[in-house]
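A common beginner's mistake is to predict each chain separately and then try to dock the pieces by hand. The better habit, illustrated here, is to supply every component at once so that their relative placement is modeled jointly.
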Amino acid sequence: MGMGRPREFDAETALDQAMEVFWRHGYEGATIAQLTEAMGINPPSLYACFGNKEGLLKAALDRYTTLRNIWMDEVVAAPTARAVAERMLMGIADKQTDPANPPGCLLVQGGIACGTGSENVPFELAARRAQNEDQLRDRFVRAKAEGDLKESVDPAALARYVSAVAVGMGVMASSGANREALRQVADVAVQAVEAQSARG
Amino acid sequence: MGMGRPREFDAETALDQAMEVFWRHGYEGATIAQLTEAMGINPPSLYACFGNKEGLLKAALDRYTTLRNIWMDEVVAAPTARAVAERMLMGIADKQTDPANPPGCLLVQGGIACGTGSENVPFELAARRAQNEDQLRDRFVRAKAEGDLKESVDPAALARYVSAVAVGMGVMASSGANREALRQVADVAVQAVEAQSARG
DNA sequence: CCAGATATGTAGTGTTCACTACAGATGTGG
DNA sequence: CCACATCTGTAGTGAACACTACATATCTGG
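With all components supplied together, the output reads:
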């Protein structure tokens, strides 16, 4: 009863490579060929080790969330609610634009499809969202000129903020969030805009 | 030199159906078979009219953004920056949970892949995001108990807000937003949390 | 050194996909 | 009524996909 031929690759190292592929191309956009090439193994090894494509994704997500939870522990260790939010959101700003990783967050980007031949679709969508952001920015420029917004406000930054909240709400809604949950988010966000108001 | 056989379907009606399919299943998750069935036509008619799948998406996006821009015109017609933000974000909360439409926003969901057999992947991702939201909520419960947050604050709502901003930033980063842009968003969001603080 | 067990590489499998050839149907201009 | 142009439905096409059968290689226990 021998123990069989030992595995020739390191599972964690291979998972890191798979994680990057899912992160960059999304679940459906990532092909087994891309995954196996990045992991440096052949399909049978992948299936023997992780079951199937979805099993590999879950293993990659486990690894991602393990690392992320360690970071979140540091985040919630901040002394105040404000400091927690600052540490988390500023940290995200840095991490999501770190050239060492694909842009964005695996937990969002993993659901984005960019299969071969349609990589430009997400950019097409982004361009349409940018139109509304520009519209908001123009409106906030006017608000500033009218004395409605503080002199210190950057209208483009405020418009980007409102757009970001809107996008976040969209993803939440797609995942099943109900109306009350979205309204609570909107309510806090509106208060943030109000705080930029000259009378606020 | 006759003018040929006339088209037997209405392009705008068909586009509305296609828009719903892209909205619900994402670009890659939507198959030509699903699209043609929803549109009530056969593939050759689709290709004769819209060129290819991506052409159909762009036509559907055109229709979506046309309707959306009309609504945005009403939004920016609000009297103050605060009212603009309120009208937009509360309107989004309602629209994105309207049972008459698929949940979420086509401009975000259109990039989400839910092909047959992997519909549960987006929910798997959402479940992982919820873990971090719960972590935040617990932290804000503590902050409230410590008198760091106002008595009127709902810790779950505030955690949901911070999570929504984080998700929005993730989508922006995926679309090419740079670090400074994300930091500006984070900065406004942090001020919103600060406004919920007892000393704020 | 042999038997059993597991991993690996090659070379496929069936399925599904976006897309289209083709023939017949339905219109217009002469 | 005829030549021509455009649409429609049937029935595919080749390509790409996730996944696997199989022979071979490499280990352990006895």
